[in-house]
Amino acid sequence: MQRLSLADGVPERFRGGIVALGNFDGFHLGHQAVVGRAVARAAHERRPAIVATFDPHPVRYFKPDVPPFRLTTLDQRERLFAGAGADATLVFAFDAGLAATMAEEFVRLLAEDIGAAGVVTGEDFTFGARRGGNVQVLRELGAAHGMGAETVGAIQLDGAPVSSSRVREALASGDPATATRLLTRPFAIEGVVEHGDKRGRDLGYPTANLTLADYQRPAYGIYAVRVRLGDGTEHAGVANLGVRPTFDPPKELLETYLFDFSGDLYGQTIEVALHHYLRGEEKFDSLDALTEQMQRDEAEARRLLLP
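The structure corresponding to this sequence follows.
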C-alpha cells in the first residue's frame, strides 16, 4: 500500500487506475461495497486500484467547532483499504483551494492529474464548490474526458441504509455491538500511550492511557476490549472511557488494563477495540468500593473475551 497526494504527483504505475472516491470515514459496509467494486473492476481490467479519501474531513473544514466525530484516523483507513485489496491510498488535502474547486475542474483533475480510467462512488456522492457536482455530473463530465464513472447503491441493514451516522449513534448510545455489525469490525481508537497519574497502578490496575483526540465519543463507561500493540500482538483487557468521576479534576481518557501483561507501553502506538459495553461510569465513595467494582468488571470482561 502506498499513500499518494496531488502535491507529490501520481507515479506512472498508478495512472490509468480505477479510483474509489469518497470520505470513507469508518469504512463501514456501504464504503466496503464501493471499494470492493473498484477493486474488482481494477482486477478485471488489470489496472491499479486506488482509494481516494479526504483529510481533514470536509465537515471539519467547513464547521471547525463541531464536536469530535471521526470514526478512523488516516492511518487506520489506509490499513483498511489495503485489507480490501487496494493498491494505493490517494489523500485529498481538504483546504481552501480544494473547497473552492468547481465540479468541472475536479473531474478534470481526476482524469488528467490523477489519470483515472474509471471512478466508483456511492450514489449520494457530491463534490465541487457548493456541492455543484453529483454522480450524474460526474458521469457526464467524466465521459468527456474518457473516464468512466459508476455508482454503488446504499447497503441496507435491519431495514435502513448503513451510514457513518448510524455508527456514531450506536456508539454514543453504548451499543458497540450494532456499531460492529455496521462496520464489520469493532470500533477502535488508536493513539500513543501517555503518562498518567498512576492511580490505576496504585489500585493494582496499571493502565495504558490514550486521549480521544478527534474520535467520535462513545458512551462513557466500562468496556471489554481487545488491544493491538505495535508489534502486532493482541491482548484482551478492560477499559474505562470517560472522565473518571471518582477523581478530581475530571480528565477525559481511555484507560485500558491489559490482562496478564507486563511491559512498558509508554510512547507506543496502540489500538483499542471496543467489544462490549459493561456499564456506565460511576462515582464511588471510597477507593475500596472502586477496587471491588473494578474486580467485578475484570471478571466480566474475561468471561466475555477469553475462552
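The chain has ten helices and 14 strands.
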